[in-house]
Structure formats: structure tokens, C-alpha cells
Amino acid sequence: MSSNHSNNNEKPSFNQVKPTxxxxxxxxxxxxxxxxxxxxxxxxxAVLGANDGLLxxxxxxxxxxxxxxxxGTMAQTGxxxxxxxxxxxxxxxxxxxxxxxxxxxxxxxxDQEDHPSPPGSLxxxxxxxxxxxxxAAASAAAFAVGGGVPLLAAxxxxxxxxxxxxxxxTVTLALFAFGWLGAVLGKAPALRSSIRVLVGxxxxxxxxxxxxxLVGFTxx
Length: 220
Hints:
By secondary structure, this protein is mostly helical. It has helices at about 1-10, 40-65, 70-115, 120-125, 130-155, 160-185, 190-220.
């Protein structure tokens, strides 16, 4: 009896439920659109190059025109600014990207020594590094495109006032367009970026014109 009684008092362990462990599943979010982070380098070079060309050449033409308003002087000044600026942009981009490439290549070699990769893998990684020559060419071309805008706007206009207005209107539209394009490609707020670029360009041209005019008045 005692044995049966003890067996009857034993309750089934239905409350002891083993926890169900759900294996963690890593979900890879594949983006359907382009990887905008990969656009950062060429987008930066292109937008900065075009804006620099536009503002540099326009400011030079407006500044020189404040003292010598004849069309030949303004055009020659613009051309000199375009050639010199394109070379400067190309050289700066070449040095910058080459330094970046050297640093990344050195890191790849250190990683190869610590964790050897399969044959051919290091060569593939080297080919994926940014090209200094391509970056320099893209930067110079972008500067030339931007700098050509004010030159074309003033090339066939004889009157100084009409030429000045033409340059200002054309550069204003180009600044807004470049700011809008850079924002759209980089997925940034388009209107805010365009206004920021436009206001900055107006300030740069205004300061150049005013300071050059002041120097002309002083007779230096």
C-alpha cells in the first residue's frame, strides 16, 4: 500500500516544458538600388570640380571686369583661370588619391602577412583600389565643364553690363543645377543643398567683385 500510495502521489511533470530555442537567422538585407556609399569618391570629385570651375572662372571674370571691363580681358582671364584651375584640381586629386591608395595597399600587405589569402585574391584587391589617374582626369574634366559655363555666357556679348548680367544669371542657374544634381545622386535634401551652394556662390562672386573694385579705386 505504501508503495502504491507513493506512486499515486507522484504528479506528472507536465509543467516542466523545455524551452523552445529558435535558431537565430541572420537576414541579409539586399538593397535593390545602387550602393550610394560607393559613389562618394567620384561624386565628391565631380561636384567639387564643377563647382570650383564655375565659381573660380566666374569670380575671376567678374573681378577683372570690375577694373577692366573690355570683353577680351575678361575672356582671357577666364581661359587662364580655367586652364590653371583644371591643372591644379588634377594635381591635387592625383596626390590625394595616390596617398589614399598607398595607405590602403600597405594595409592589404599587412593583412596578407597576418592572414594569407588564396592566390590571386591580393591582385583582385589591388585592382579594386581607386585609380589616381582616373580621379585626376575626372576632376580636371569636371572643373573644365564648370569653368566653361561663364566663358560661354560672356563670349559673344559686347556690352559690359549685359555681359555681367549674362554671367550672373547663367552661373546662378548652373550653381542651382549642380547643387540639385549632387543632392539627388547622393540622396540628400535637394532644395536645401541647392540653396546652400547658390548662396555660397553669390557670396564668393560678390566678395571678389567688391574687393577687386576696392583695389582698383586705390590704384594699387
